[in-house]
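wait is this the right file?? whatever heres the structure
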């Protein structure tokens, strides 16, 4: 049985509003990182392929390279820049990280809405309070993970995201561990 009759009733509860705001924030950030990741990745691939084609066509007196001598160095520079930005921005890792936090928060909200797990024996007010507590715990742990990932990037060691299933058990904290990929 759903605890609310309409979405408006559900969104009027402060814990649900807070959860929705945090979920929206992590979704927006993940989507932005995914766009950067794809832009850098696809631009690098396309320019590298075009560079190979242009270099292959640069044979003979009527070659493109003779008419536009800066073309190959320019394309090489753009490909190198995109490749460097892809690595430096860590857009793929940031995308996965923010998406993981978003999914954890969504899973917690689903447990709340269904009255499952830790929410099963609580009153409506207790459930809303518990939802807020769990969202804050997930949010706080995300800062700790972010800090850990920044430290990890400074040592130039790859990080491995903990992608274990989400649990409503607040004693289990997600972690980043410095293990080879």
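ok assuming it is, sequence goes like this
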């Amino acid at each position: 049985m759903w605890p609310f009759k309409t979405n408006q009733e559900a969104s009027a509860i402060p814990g649900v509003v807070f959860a929705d705001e945090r979920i929206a924030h992590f979704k927006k950030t993940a989507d932005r990182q995914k766009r950067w990741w794809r832009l850098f990745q696809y631009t690098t691939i396309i320019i590298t392929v075009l560079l190979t084609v242009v270099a292959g066509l640069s044979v003979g007196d009527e070659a493109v390279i003779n008419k536009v001598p800066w073309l190959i160095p320019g394309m090489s520079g753009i490909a190198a820049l995109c490749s460097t930005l892809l690595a430096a921005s860590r857009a793929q890792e940031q995308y996965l990280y923010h998406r993981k936090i978003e999914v954890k928060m969504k899973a917690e909200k689903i447990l709340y809405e269904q009255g499952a797990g830790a929410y099963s024996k609580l009153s409506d007010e207790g459930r809303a309070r518990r939802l807020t507590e769990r969202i804050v715990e997930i949010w706080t742990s995300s800062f700790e993970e972010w800090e850990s990932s920044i430290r990890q990037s400074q040592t130039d060691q790859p990080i491995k995201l903990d992608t274990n299933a989400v649990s409503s058990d607040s004693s289990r904290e997600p972690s980043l561990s410095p293990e080879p990929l």
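Confidence is low (pLDDT under 50) at residues 1-6, 170-181. so i think its the right one actually
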